[in-house]
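User: Okay, second chain of the day. Same drill as before: sequence in, structure tokens out.
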Amino acid sequence: TLMRSSAASDVYKRQCIYRNIKKRGSIMTYVLISACLLGQSCRYDGKHKQYDAINTLMERDDIVLIPICPEQAGGLATPRDPSERKGSMVFTTNGIDVTAQYNKGAEEALRLCRLYHCNTAILKEKSPSCGHGRIYDGTFTRTLVNGNGVTAERLIKAGITVIGETEINMYLQT
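Assistant: Same drill. Structure tokens below.
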């Protein structure tokens, strides 16, 4: 399946996608996906959150996954201090404001969605960047509240459907 390696350049990815479409002669669906769900060790703790249901997506010939870690795309290192969203701001456990980096990563995710014509994004649930529907409340007590991460919010405002990893099976049935 295409896009297993997130280390490939955008140009290389576009070339692979073009060859794949040309070879199959079929219409492809491009889906933005949190890179940590594909097994890339890009989370704040240097780990990944590979999710088994992703394998079904990767086996589909009509779906091309476009990986991104918005935090890394926004300039944050891995590993990094945990962060949580508090209102429109994002802070680390040490009180450092990383809102600008989260906003930059969200814009990069939107740029990729537009570049590859992604109508759907599968993002890591509960994340201050990717979380959809429920995120941590900013107190670092693991308390969940209704809300979206910075990237999820930006993509939704742009008209992109955002789903979490636990909703993949429902997505595949549509």
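The longest helix spans residues 99-116.

User: Thanks, on to the next one.
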